[in-house]
Sequence to fold (360 residues):
Amino acid sequence: MKNKKEMRTWLDDLNLDHPLVIAGPCSAETEEQVLKIAHELKNTDVSYFRAGIWKPRTRPGMFEGVGALGLQWLQKVKAETGMKTCTEVANAAHVKLAVEHDVDLLWIGARSTVSPFIMQELADALAGTDKIVLVKNPVNPDLALWLGGIERLHNAGIKNLGAIHRGFSTYEKTKYRNIPEWQLAIEFQNRFPDLPLINDPSHITGNRDMVFDVCQTALDLNFDGLMVETHYDPDNAWSDAAQQITPKALVQMMIDLKIRKESDPEAKFNHDLSNLRAKIDVVDNQIIDLLAKRMQVADGIGVLKKSKNVAVLQSKRWNEILGKMVLQGEDKGLSEEFILKLFKAIHQESINHQEKVIKG
Ligand SMILES: O=C(O)C(=O)C[C@]1(C(=O)O)C=C[C@@H](O)C=C1
Fold:
């Protein structure tokens, strides 16, 4: 699969003067709930009304969605509000029912994207439709698996494709429900700049208080749209209560979010930017020189350790370094998260250098 300008045709054809917004409840609960939310979202920036019909839940015994019945409610949403509709599909039977009920956009969930078998089943079931299909990232931060899933749909002749960044599972507890790993989304855009990329702040945060900030970061990183879970009574939602926001809050958020341009033609701005970029280039070169110097020292340590048969990994020393660097970083306004990532990468490279010396 290669990047092509036409990949964004379906999005361009919407002629929006703001990012694409997909919103609606995590789950369709009752007909009244679905229609009430839909009417509150009518005449806002929302183009697509979302509602989960079949819900993949971590544990059995939780609310697993109303099933096909909810698709009739989505048809009513379309008839009464004019909004297009979307839902998640996870197997060929879901696809058949969603297509029969005229759902406009289908998304594939993170737990499906991880499985090439499921992706192939969905690609086969969707072949021949002109539906928009958005593929959420797999639960693990694996860009090749994400792109591979999209490629299966592309190879089945599905033209209106896009991706949803919903964050990644981690063993460690973080402030996020699913950590964003923004670098991976940036890498995605580098590889496929014309494949529409939508951010899902609800699943990244798991917490409505953080939704705005994640949306702003996504827009700052040129995402094409947002998919935001929305409920008129979030606290009493049947699923994902903590992360849903009200339609009113969504409207306010769309007013408050800053939509930034990719560049500006003004001469002074471009002159100042070039100067600052030249400074960055100098510093980047210094960083590379320093890292190379550090690895030369590591090579020396490797030679010394080899002579006395001493192990490469020295956890006590390493933890002392990490602790010191986190403190120094804080002093200089560098986040703990960044310092840990940076020094863990440096440590790994130092170990690789020493291994090479010891084996060589
Ligand atoms: O101090 C050592 O023993 C080293 O090998 C150097 C170093 C480092 O790069 O700072 C690398 C590996 C060890 O786990 C600890 C520290």
